[in-house]
Sequence to fold (283 residues):
Amino acid sequence: MAPRSRPTARQVRLGTELRRLREAAGLKAREVAGLLSSTSAQMSQVEAGLAGVSEERLRRLAAHYACADEALIEALVAMVTDRTQGWWEEYRGVLPSVFSDVAETEHHGTFLREVVTSHVPGLLQTPDYARAVFGYMIPELPESELKPRVEHRMRRRSVLEQDVPIPYETIVHEAALRILVSDRRTARAQLLEVLGAIEDGRATVRVIPLAREGFAGAGIEMMYVGGPLQQLDTVLRDAPHGTAFIDAGSQLARFRAMLNKVGKAALQPVESRDFIHHLAKEV
Fold:
């Protein structure tokens, strides 16, 4: 089978976890290749997400690595056997692959925790608000690219609207709620949309007021996606070159600590709801 030209973030993560298991066992790729009647080059492709691995082979590898963590093994098996072809696949080749990778990562999350300081969270944006955000890019996007980006952002909301929605909590700075990315009509509709998400239980929203003293974390933005196990969590962070997918254990621990620290500066959910309601009246 030819190597994949563009593995998804989930396929890359599976390969990364297999590499970590091998390295924890103190083995080289060439030492493991013989077990699968393979080559070190093919093993490298598997660990890079460029080639797949069957459930039977994964279990053999786990046994060879003396991995006794049954929960981890079963979680990796689920990643191997899951054949979900989600709605995001429609956008591969239409939008940059990171759009589909973000949606797939959210879809498989067990919970979502987010911190935003510059814009209303993407999962809560209205079409008009999202269009204004994407429309501000340089160079300016043609309609043929702008339209699918807005559509994709709206379809990401399915994780909050399905029969069993993924638990979602966002901490948003007051500045993000006040910035007029478009006109006042769009701003008011956006605030009412956030309130609607709060009222129907799609989201838990906590606001950090501008007047909050001792908050120096305005540059902290992230989406923390819970995995089936804590070691399979993922942090998504936007950067000038694109979205970074962070999964190293020490970094995950750091971002969990950051979430907790930022959370101490935020109002409680009921206070935040009343705060946003007041902002909506001001617009």
DSSP finds 13 helices and six strands in the chain. The CA atoms of residues 220 and 258 lie 8 Å apart. The chain has a mean pLDDT of 95.
